[in-house]
Amino acid sequence: MSVNISLENVSLKFRIYRNPMPNLKETFVNLVTHKRHLDDVVEFYALKNICINFHSGDRVGIIGLNGAGKSTLLKTIAGIYPPHEGIIKISGLVTPMIELGAGFDPELSGRQNIYLNGAILGFSKEAMQQREKDIVEFSELSDFINLPVKYYSSGMFSRLAFSIAVISDPEILIVDEILAAGDAHFVQKATNRMQHLFQNSQIVLFVSHSLNQVEALCKRVLIMHQGEIVAQGETKEMIAYYKAHYGN
Known about the structure:
Elements (H helix, E strand, L loop, with lengths): L3 E14 L6 H10 L7 E15 L3 E5 L6 H8 L7 E7 L2 E4 L12 H11 L4 H15 L14 H12 L6 E5 L7 H17 L2 E5 L3 H7 L2 E6 L2 E7 H12 L2
Parallel strand pairs: 3-7, 3-8, 5-6, 6-7
Antiparallel strand pairs: 1-2, 1-4, 8-9
């Protein structure tokens, strides 16, 4: 089966409430007058008229300043944010590595969270039993795996979340800033594992503020600014363009 992603004129709006918790007087006045100040709500385009295609073999880095729309683009492709305008067509199974550990239950042990997150990822209990040992070994948390994760340090939490996320080889891999998990030793191990996933996935979309990681892992780069793709092309050329225009 051919694996591809197509975005046609995709736009996404976000709404900001300037005064999300009005005081009692403001609430009463609004109820009596049946109106709300227009200035209280502001809409803006998080993504604007995105048109792009990704095909089998693509290893694409997505870079830009904070708030440029990088993570929003990945979440829209992953189906977390439905677009307000445009069409997204995807052929292939998407595996998003976004906000790792978001599905953890802090009251459960590391081991229990392995099974919980495995279920979220679509794996059966039997499939997770086959993977449990590898996950625990990769995370290097065997001494703490039966401890509730609410007692984990941020590094331990990230290591377990990453170790669960990389248990399979996806068709379409979407990665958002996950290679900074843990100490230098674990970051190197995680980077090696990601290189394996990059090689075995058919399409990879990778958001990172580390230009070195993007250059090492990606063949092509998109530059985003204020919700739009402002440039795209070969990796070294785009990184040079980004440094020249955005001083990073």
